[in-house]
Amino acid sequence: MLPAESFAGNGCGGASWYALRSKTASGERMNPAVLTAAHRSLAFGTKVKVTNRNNGRTVVVRINDRGPFIRGRVLDLSRAAAQNIGMVSSGTAKVCYQVIS
């Protein structure tokens, strides 16, 4: 059997947040106040539960963009999502994520 991290729907790694107002890869405008995220391969619209490994806080986000493009990172979160899991001030955090729908 393969470890959970090898399945694109589940994984752990670094996350960062961004608050641009440009268009996302899905074509919608990035809104930092909405619970969204960027992932390299998950389908747009996929709902993902993200857990901050440092404090245990979780948030559910919708994938609407592609990225991150920095080695070791698995998600780029909107500012609102980052705020929900307590990582705005640090800018990055170790997270685990799981596809929920």
TrEMBL record:
The keyword Lyase applies. It holds the Pfam family DPBB_1. Keywords: Cell wall biogenesis/degradation, Lipoprotein, Lyase. Residues 12-97 form the RlpA-like protein double-psi beta-barrel domain. The keyword Magnesium does not apply. It comes from the Bacteria. It is an enzyme of class 4 (lyase). Its EC number is 4.2.2.-. PANTHER family: ENDOLYTIC PEPTIDOGLYCAN TRANSGLYCOSYLASE RLPA, ENDOLYTIC PEPTIDOGLYCAN TRANSGLYCOSYLASE RLPA-RELATED. NCBIfam families: rlpA. Belongs to the RlpA family. Lytic transglycosylase with a strong preference for naked glycan strands that lack stem peptides. This is Endolytic peptidoglycan transglycosylase RlpA. It comes from Rhizobium phaseoli.
